[in-house]
Amino acid sequence: MKHFFAYIMFGLFFLCLISQGTAQQQTFQQVQPLKQEVLPISAQQVRGNIYQVKGGMGANTGFFINEKEVLIIDTKMNEDSARQMIAEVKKLTPYPVTCIILTHSDSDHVNGLVGFPQGIPIISHEKTRAHMDKAFQSARERIYLPNIVFSDTLSLYTGDVKGSTRIDLLYFGPAHTDGDAIVYFPGEKVAFIGDLIFIGREQLIHRHKNGSSFGLVKTLKAVLNLDADVFVHGHGDLATKKDIKNHIQSIEEQQIRIQALVKEGKTLDEVKKIYSNDTRTGDMRWPSLVEVIYRELTEKK
Ligand SMILES: [Zn+2]
After folding, report:
1. 299 is a domain residue
2. How far apart are CA 226 and CA 245, in angstroms?
3. What order of strands is seen across the sheet that includes strand 70-73?
4. How remote is the CA of residue 228 from the centroid of ligand 1, in Å?
5. How close is the Cα of 73 to the center of ligand 1, in Å?
6. What does the pLDDT look like over 178-230, one tens digit per residue?
7. pTM
8. Full residue range of the structural domain in which residue 60 is found
9. How far is the CA of 235 from the centre of ligand 1 (A)?
10. Is 65 helix (H, G, I), strand (E, B) or coil?
């Protein structure tokens, strides 16, 4: 019988390959949560046995119910919301959670891990694990560091041979952070894309986690090439390819405009003044998209 756990135990052999990361750019504290209105937690069907969980503290999460097990995608932001998420799962199935996948390392996606039972395989991109390795300081948190990592792609096959579901974890380079995993269900044409898009609010890019606006555009173009038509993301309703195209376009327009201003010799402050909505200063954890683009164009990595 094929089983998440059997597959994942195999994956543990690769643990020795996990990079311990370097100390670069770690002058920042753990990322602050996005401000959000706290709504009751509820699960909604996305397609087939794939669900999205909205509400509670932290970003949208999801889960997939297979024949005898449940796979979780992101974990909310604290123990309480994670437990409420698990209660939503239990309303739909008696099967246990056997695997957790993390889209990236931000606290509003991973700090709910402590609300899940211990000993469940936790999978992330290797760079996401490196960020969490620095952020998770307490012994209790460190139990929940990912124990399976990938660098480019990783495929999971769940369920029995008949009716087996394939899930691809994909990575296209630095974008929102440098460890963003896309969780793609090719059979269902659904992809979880973490914080690769923000709709109706400014795209957040974490430069202190080596995120990149140009990398984000590249990654989103790769996402458009997937045979998927529903995209679950961290901070909004389900999205379509049209939403992603519009998002790419708006970021590229800003990049082109800021590039022209850089060529004219404008300083960062002058560029920010041109964008009257950009009033943020000082806090490098939360630079505006304008500032991120300007710095990418003018600073050497
Ligand atoms: Zn994020």
Report:
1. no
2. 13
3. 42-47, 50-54, 61-65, 70-73, 97-101, 122-125, 148-150
4. 22
5. 14
6. 999 999 999 999 999 999 999 988 999 999 999 999 999 999 999 999 999 99
7. 0.86
8. 4-15+22-240
9. 9
10. strand
